[in-house]
Design a protein that fits this description.
The chain is an alpha/beta fold. It folds into two domains: about 5-20 and about 100-280, HAD superfamily/HAD-like (Rossmann fold, 3-Layer(aba) Sandwich); about 25-95. Helices cover about 45% and strands about 15% of the residues. It has helices at about 20-40, 45-55, 65-70, 75-85, 85-100, 105-115, 125-135, 160-165, 190-200, 215-225, 240-250, 255-260, and strands at about 10, 120-125, 145-150, 175-180, 205-210, 225-230, 270-275.
């Protein structure tokens, strides 16, 4: 397979196009610190309760965490949210500050698009936050297709309408074609990548896949018989904040064991991006 065959560029989102761990850490730790300040509850107790909620809903970004954190409940849900509004604001302030694309990502995407490539983004992350970030980065319309996982359940059927302060179209993709891969499907399942390639009208031979995890992204690409590029610059382990993520993560013991088992595989990428996303343009044919 040669780079000159590539017509479709499929990209992981988190830690490939932007630093997900950093924006999660700064926003979550700001919120956690404020909850601790207001409630007086020890941090280790809060972390234990939060992890249980994250595991229940299979995400470390549960949008209704404060509502479901019983240990801080003070009367009604509405009263609790009002009391902890400063924690929500701290979260949002930190998120806005740290939610940025990696250097050179936008210019590289524009270059690829102008050369006629079909651009696809795929993430295991759930839809709500992914769409918000996607639009924040200005990717709606630049990327041809966005594939996400289905969201977790809301507290009730009308909950989103109650808490949203903007028109519904603000929370939806307007120009990029948005598709779902379903719920609970995880990398490195090659069937996910084959489904994406089929839905965008491409072929395995004409596609290249880029992701930050050697044992999930690249392994998925290899098993799907797709040219796999490792975005080594986005490797999250060892970054500031990763320890906190592990403490409150939705990862179960089974998830950790699965991850450990994957690392025993002998996975070799077809190409490696060591310093940043713009290196992708140096790949033959791109």
């Amino acid at each position: 397979m040669s780079g000159s065959d590539f017509r479709t560029v499929i990209l992981d989102f988190d830690n490939t196009l932007y630093d997900w761990v950093a924006q999660w850490y700064y926003s979550f730790s700001a919120m956690l610190g404020e909850i601790h300040r207001i409630s007086g509850i020890p941090l280790d107790v809060l972390k234990e309760q939060i992890r249980a909620i994250h595991q229940k809903h299979h995400t470390s970004e549960y949008a209704f965490l404060i509502e479901h954190l019983d240990i801080i409940r003070d009367g009604s849900v509405e009263a609790t949210i009002a009391k902890y509004r400063p924690a929500i604001e701290k979260f949002r302030e930190a998120r806005t500050k740290h939610l940025v694309l990696y250097p050179g990502v936008m210019d590289t995407l524009i270059n690829l698009r102008s050369s006629g490539k079909t651009l696809v983004v795929f993430t295991e992350s759930q839809t709500f936050y992914t769409v918000m970030r996607f639009k924040h980065f200005g990717l709606d319309g630049l990327i041809d297709f966005l594939f996400t996982s289905d969201d977790h359940e809301t507290p009730d059927n009308n909950y989103l309408e109650k808490i949203r302060s903007r028109p519904s179209e603000y929370y939806e993709i307007q120009n990029t074609k948005h598709r779902s891969v379903g719920k609970g499907r995880l990398k490195p399942d090659p069937a996910i990548l084959r489904q994406i390639i089929d839905e965008v009208g491409s072929t395995q031979r004409n596609s290249v896949y880029v992701g930050d995890s050697l044992y999930k992204d690249v392994l998925m690409a290899k098993e799907a018989r797709v040219f796999g590029v490792w975005a080594q610059y986005g490797e999250a382990r060892g970054q500031p904040g990763y320890d906190l993520l592990r403490e409150v993560s939705h990862w179960t013991d089974e998830d950790v064991e699965r991850d450990r088992s994957l690392k025993k595989r002998d996975v070799k990428a077809n190409a490696i991006l060591k310093t940043g996303f713009p290196e992708l343009l140096g790949l033959n044919g791109l």
